Amino acid sequence: MNIIPNYTDFGLSSPMSIELRKVVESQLLDDLKNYSINCENLKFDWSESCIEGHLSEHLDSLLENYSGIKLFDENDNLIFEGWMEFINDYDEINNCKYFIAYWDYLDVYENGSFANIKTEPGLPTHILKILPKNLKLKFNNEQFN
Questions:
Q1: For residues 40 and 71, is the Cβ–Cβ distance under 8 A?
Q2: Which residues partner with 106 through β-bridges?
Q3: Residue 82 and residue 73 in contact, taking contact as beta carbons nearer than 8 Å
Q4: In degrees rounded to 5, what are phi and psi of residue 90?
Q5: Which of 23, 42, 136, 138 has its CA 20 to 30 A from that of 76?
Q6: Residue 116 CA from chain centroid, whole number
Q7: pLDDT tens per residue across span 70-87
Q8: Helix, strand or coil for residue 55?
Q9: Distance in angstroms (rounded) separating the CA atoms of residues 42 and 77
Q10: At a CB cut-off of 8 Å and minimum separation 6, what does 16 contact?
Q11: CA distance 99 to 54
């Protein structure tokens, strides 16, 4: 099965501004490193992105947690598909807004089928570790309650 990328249709993620999309894509690529994945030369295909119900505003733009995000290599071969999540909250200690996007679910495409990399939803430990103290306490309590 040959899956052809569409880099021009942003699907239901179209409300994201160019600036916000760059931030989200950069953070999602960076998050791949936590799964020992080389993230060089990967390209995003948002054309089948689907809203999953976590609406927020950041950088004067709207975003949701989207499923159906595909990543292709430089030869347009499908490599990953996933579902992003994010934290967009106020950091009272540092008196600033805090934003980070990460993978909530992630699958690798190999030999014509998907294999799970991250199957459990929720805040990964590597994200929890980098949160500012007050957000770490807030989200750690939410995660386990």
A1: no
A2: 82, 118
A3: no
A4: -95, 130
A5: 23
A6: 16
A7: 999 999 999 999 999 999
A8: coil
A9: 10
A10: 10, 24, 61, 62, 63
A11: 14
CA distances from 42 to 25, 62, 78, 92, 103 (A): 10, 24, 10, 35, 15
Q: Which residue, among 98, 100, 72, 108, has the nearest Cα to 84 in the 3D structure?
A: 100
**SS3 at position 36:** coil
pLDDT digits (tens, 9 = 90+) for 98-108: 999 999 999 99
Cα 110 to Cα 117: distance, rounded to the nearest angstrom: 12
CB 64 within 8 A of CB 53: yes
Q: How far apart are CA 41 and CA 44, in angstroms?
A: 10
CB 71 within 8 A of CB 79: yes
- Residue 119: helix, strand or coil by DSSP? coil
Q: In whole angstroms, give the CA distance from residue 85 to residue 38.
A: 20
